[in-house]
Specification:
heterodimer, A: 344 residues, alpha/beta, 5-stranded parallel β-sheet, 8 helices, 17 strands, globular, B: 398 residues, 7-stranded mixed β-sheet, 3-stranded antiparallel β-sheet, 13 helices
């Protein structure tokens, strides 16, 4: 029997081509766009422009298209926690939380409810069936690899997800879209957090939602008072902006304590550390045992770093810049995502 | 008629489909299609022009105006043609507020909390206030009386709610306004009423009355606003000064002619249609709770127009249910969707006092003059089976 696949169509080129490729492969394909954020965004209120693009591509491909309103769930499990985390000095990655709680949970469940065999997304990563165990691998295009933001996927989700553009370069994806005259062919890649406008930025978004208190800047070594900044909640470990310094001597936020409002400022050496504590680890396959040699990645397009995984912390082979609390650390073996957790 | 319906669905490639979304739009009447095509083929003149060809176009509009006005209980000079219900409601509410509202904050504009967004968003944009409804969907007349006084400029209450089908007593609304706020203008959105009620008598006390052609078998993109003699409104579209300077822009001649034919037939058939469709609707409303668990009529059917069957489920969200229905060839809606197509927790159901969960679990099944017993039978087969599938999945995952 033909497999039925529900494609999450964001209105971008990757998910448009995802739908097209699955049709070519003979799947029965239905498109769905999730309405997640009802407020202002760079693509208009309710992202209507993106929904229109997705709908038009679905029409061009001759598949059905639906819109699912997960606004309530998105607010409860992505936006709310994002705001609350900043209030206590953590800097979460909302795209990861959206994948965890919305795309590979609520959306997948909805698809199964509706009788689909699988979902598909336009993420640049690969899923390989290795004798019934599913491996999550980096995307073929190193510049576009999104395996980092998918690290929370577990076997049940991996078994029911298709990522057909993960085998391609972005330029190939755009070529396919252009060949078929899909209106999203030359649409720019989305860059930022979907619920934060480029105009207001993170500070305006958070400023409307949590009380901001001033930051006191203190020298990392001497303890000298270095002045103030308007909001400690907006300072992230590793940040250079507002920390003084110049091209000869760069200065960074090395520690942020939202409770006391204290930000320590130091030079690059003060920022370096070999250890990062992690919590809420999840694994794509078997639990990774302590002492395992891994490759760790601490940001979406960060460098792969040699490290040892020790359950509740990771030791880098070489000291690295400190990572802000709330960010995700993903551990790989070669190209395969083993799992990931949150910096504690 | 059956051929018409089969033709309509066949054209979409849905030969085995059941259409239960007549409140969204209904099957266009053959007579209206022929009239529109005939006028488009025959008429070249711009009705605003002076020459003979223009006068031909003008004649079509004015003859339609005479007849439509009469059928709506208005005088021809009281009828303003528009592009449809939303434009009519905007022109009525905002146009009347612009002339009559003396309060700087717009709080003199009042509407029911369950208005269609065409009115609701207009009132909200003016800074207006909202009258509560009771759990049965009827306007809380006490709250209306509380909210209005000598400073009120516009009161807008819909004749029939687009989601539940609930009928409002426009006569009582108008009397309450006349007593407490005699200076205020009463607008009623009668878009959903025309197919089912004698609007000429039901809405006779409203100063402004909005109607739309495509809800009664006319074409989309055509509607009208009745502006009673002596009621002042400000134009919202300016330009060539058409429609007695209340609505500039070249009229939709073919659309207006087709609207007229559709309204004529609607009124002539109305009594028979209402009694036939009511029986079908009742069969549907009786059959659903017999076949599915946890479903109930949202408002008492005695208070609704004959075509509406609005139900609320305990544990089934309308997005999933409507998806399954769509897959099975049953077309219905939740009644409230934003421009993105996403379903919203219905403001109407929230105003009725339903919690947010139930407000996301409402399904609007609306019948029309082309509905048949087979449609009801099919709905009573498709919906319970979709509900069963969704609830068994829930049981497994719970």
């Amino acid at each position: 029997m033909t497999k039925r696949v529900l494609v999450a169509m964001s209105g971008g080129v990757d998910s448009s081509v995802t739908a097209a490729l699955l049709l070519d492969e003979g799947y029965e394909v239905v498109g769905a766009t999730m309405k997640l954020w009802g407020g202002a965004s760079d693509s208009g209120c309710c992202s209507i422009a993106d929904v229109d693009d997705a709908r038009r591509v679905a029409q061009q491909l001759g598949i059905k298209h639906h819109v699912f309103n997960f606004g309530e769930e998105f607010m409860a499990s992505v936006v709310g926690p994002y705001v609350n985390a900043h209030a206590v000095g953590n800097t979460p990655n909302p795209c990861i939380e959206c994948n965890r709680h919305i795309k590979f949970d609520v959306f997948l469940e909805r698809a199964l409810d509706l009788g689909f065999d699988a979902i598909a997304t336009g993420h640049h990563a690969r899923i390989e069936n290795r004798d019934g165990r599913f491996a999550l691998l980096r995307g073929a295009d190193p510049a576009k690899d999104q395996s980092y933001v998918l690290h929370m996927m577990k076997q049940d989700a991996l078994a029911r997800t298709l990522l057909p553009v993960g085998h391609m370069n972005k330029s190939q994806v755009r070529e396919i879209a252009a060949e078929r005259g899909l209106r999203t062919a030359s649409k720019p890649d989305s860059q930022d957090v979907c619920f934060i406008t480029s105009k207001g930025g993170r500070s305006a978004f958070l400023g409307d939602r949590i009380p901001m208190k001033p930051a006191r800047l203190i020298d990392h070594e001497t303890g000298d008072d270095l002045g103030t900044l308007p909001s400690v909640e907006m300072v992230t470990v590793g940040q250079r902006k507002g920390m003084g310094g110049n091209t000869a001597e760069r200065r960074y936020a090395t520690e942020v304590d939202v409770a006391t409002g204290v930000v320590k400022v130091g030079n690059i050496a003060d920022l370096m550390t070999s250890r990062v504590d992690v919590t809420e680890m999840s694994f794509t396959n078997e639990v990774v045992l302590g002492g395992a040699t891994v490759v760790a990645q601490v940001s979406a397009h960060g460098l792969p770093l040699g490290a040892t995984f020790n359950g509740d912390h990771i030791i880098f082979d070489e000291p690295q810049r400190r990572v802000a609390r709330g960010q995700s650390v993903v551990v790989y073996s070669g190209d395969e995502v083993l799992g990931g957790g949150i910096v504690a | 008629m059956a051929a018409n319906r089969a033709g309509f669905l066949g054209k979409l490639g849905f030969s085995m489909s059941v259409y239960l979304d007549h409140a969204a739009t209904t099957v266009m009447r053959d007579s209206a299609i022929q009239t529109a095509a005939d006028v488009m083929g025959r008429i070249t003149g711009n009705p605003s022009g002076a020459h003979g060809a223009a006068q031909q176009a003008r004649t079509i509009i004015e003859e339609a105006r005479d007849e439509i006005a009469e059928l709506l209980g208005a005088a021809p000079r009281e009828l303003v043609f528009t592009s449809g219900g939303t434009e009519s409601a905007n022109l009525g509410v905002i146009g009347a507020a612009r002339v009559n509202d003396n309060l700087s904050d717009g709080s003199g504009v009042v509407c029911s909390a369950i208005e269609h967004h065409a009115v609701l968003n207009a009132v909200e944009s003016l800074g207006g206030r909202f009258v509560r409804v009771k759990a049965d969907g009827q306007l809380d007349m006490g709250h209306l009386a509380e909210l209005i006084d000598g400073t009120t400029s516009v009161v807008s209450v819909m004749a029939v709610n687009n989601e539940t089908g609930g009928i409002q007593d426009i006569g009582t609304v108008a009397r309450t306004v006349a007593n407490r706020a005699p200076q205020a203008v009463v607008h009623t959105d009668a878009v959903q009423a025309v197919a089912w009620l004698d609007v000429a008598s039901h809405c006779k006390d409203a100063h402004l009355l909005s109607v739309s052609a495509h809800k009664i078998g006319g074409p989309m993109g055509t509607g009208a606003l009745v502006v009673r003699e002596g009621t002042k409104i400000a134009a919202q579209i300016v330009g060539g000064g058409q429609e007695r300077e209340l609505r500039s822009g070249t009229q939709n001649v073919a659309g207006i002619a087709a609207f007229c034919v559709a309204l004529r037939e609607t009124v002539a058939e109305r009594e028979a249609t209402v009694s036939r469709v009511r029986q079908l609707r009742d069969a549907l409303l009786d059959g659903l709770p017999a076949a599915c668990e946890g479903v109930r009529e949202t408002v008492p059917r005695q208070s609704t127009v004959a075509g509406h069957a609005h139900v609320t489920f305990d544990d089934i969200d309308s997005e999933s249910l409507l998806f399954m229905c769509d897959e099975a060839g049953l077309f219905a809606s939740a009644g409230a969707s934003c421009a993105s197509g996403a379903m919203q927790p219905s403001h109407v159901l929230m105003a009725l006092g339903l919690d947010e969960r139930h407000a996301r679990n409402g399904v609007r099944l609306t019948l029309g003059r082309t509905s048949t017993l087979n449609d009801v039978d099919e709905a009573l087969r498709i919906i319970p089976s979709a509900v069963e599938r969704l609830s068994s999945r829930r049981r497994v995952s719970a």
